[in-house]
Design a protein that fits this description.
There is one protein chain. By secondary structure, the chain is mostly helical. The chain has helices at about 5-10, 15-25, 35-55. The longest helix is centred in the C-terminal third of the chain and has 23 residues, at about 35-55. It starts with a helix and ends with a helix.
Amino acid sequence: MSEEQVRRAPAPPDVHDEERLAALDDLSGEPGPEGFAAAVDEIVSVHTDLLARLAQ
C-alpha cells in the first residue's frame, strides 16, 4: 500500500466509541447542565483528534 493509500484509508473504529454509545443507552432521563457540558467537551475532543489526523 502506498503512502497516499495509507493516508486515505479510514481509521479503524475506536473501541471506546462503542463503549460510549452503549453507556448512553443506559442513561435515564434528560442530562443536566453538567451532562451537556461533558458531551460538548467530548465532541470538541473528537473533532480536535479528527483535525489532527487530517493534518497528517
